[in-house]
Each structure stands twice: as C-alpha cells, then as structure tokens.
Amino acid sequence: MHNRPTLGDPARATTAHEVAARFAEGLQQSGAAGDADGYDGAFAADVVWGSPYGASVVGYAELNAIHRRLMDAQVAPPSQFEVVVATSPTPKVVLTQIRRRATEPGGFSENAMYVLVERNGRWWLAGAQNTPITQPPGRTDSTPPTPPTPQAAASESAASAAVQEGLS
Predict the structure, then answer these.
(1) N or C: at which end does the chain have fewer Cβ atoms within 10 angstroms?
(2) CA 5 to CA 67: how far, in whole Å?
C-alpha cells in the first residue's frame, strides 16, 4: 500500500478560495461585457491554454486574439462563473476548478482547471484546461438527455468553427 501525500495546505485554503473567487469574478464581469482584454487581463505572457475542443495554445498574444474573435462573435452564451474547488499545494500557487454555467436553456457550459501563480503581489494565470460539460457516456439513469435547442446547437457549431479557425 502506498502513502499518498495531501498536497493542499489547509492553512492556505481561505486564501486559495479568495484568489479563485476574485479570478472567477473577473471572468464573469469581462465575459458579460464581451471584453476579451479584461477577460484575459490576468493571463501570463506564457499562459498555457487547452481549449474545450482539444486545441492547445501557448502565449497571451495568440490566446487573446482568439478570445477577441470569439467575444466579437458572441459565441459563449450568457453565463455564471462559480468556483467548484480551490486549493494551494504550495505557497504562491492556487489550483482551482471554475465552472461556466450557461444561464439560458440549451447553452453550452464548461468546467475549467486553472493554475494561478502569485508574482510580485499579483496573481497570474499560468495554465488552464477547459472541458465542455456534456452528457456522460454510459448514462445509467432513466432520464433521457435533453436535446440542445436549435440556438444551442448553432452556438456550439459556431464556437467550434470559430475556435478551429482561430487555431489553424
């Protein structure tokens, strides 16, 4: 049997949650305003980003250009950002999951893992991985999944096309 360490430090739990909540609030406000520069305002120059469609992007400039195109096209539906979990495995590092939940029926939602690093008194996003929230395969309950509305299907298709265009 292996002894596995607990990496999150309970002494930093409150700070981790506060940092994650401030970050989520910034995403919320900038996303609602369609402000890509504000949305990406805490992203480090060498941010590593995994899109919900499997693409990888390295660097603020490339990612910000993609976010500008997506926000100009209003790809993401109105959404609520919420901290799912936040932990601090080492000083000046916060690992958090933040869910972006569409507030309109049929809108696409996603869950993201973020790594935030404090540098000179400011928190920066070092890396993120987005995962779309979909119906899991092998569903065992008896409730059939709700099919997406035509608007949601069109939005997802537009999002995928815009991301793929931005990454090619």
Answers:
(1) N
(2) 37
Give the residue from 17, 74, 71, 16 showing the smallest Cα distance to 39. Answer: 71
Cα–Cα distance, 85 to 95 (Å, whole number): 8
**Residue position matching structure tokens 């607990």:** 6
Yes or no: say if 163 and 56 are a contact pair by the CB < 8 Å rule. Answer: no
How far, in Å, CA of 84 to CA of 19, rounded?
13
Report helix, strand and coil shares of the chain as percent, to nearest 5: 35, 30, 35
pLDDT of residue 140: 56
The parts of the chain modelled with pLDDT lower than 70 are 1, 137-168
79 bridge partner residues: 102
* Rounded distance between C-alpha atoms, residue 102 and residue 82, angstroms: 11
> What's the DSSP call for residue 11?
G
User: Would the pTM of this model clear 0.90, i.e. be above it?
Assistant: no
What pLDDT score was predicted for residue 43? 98
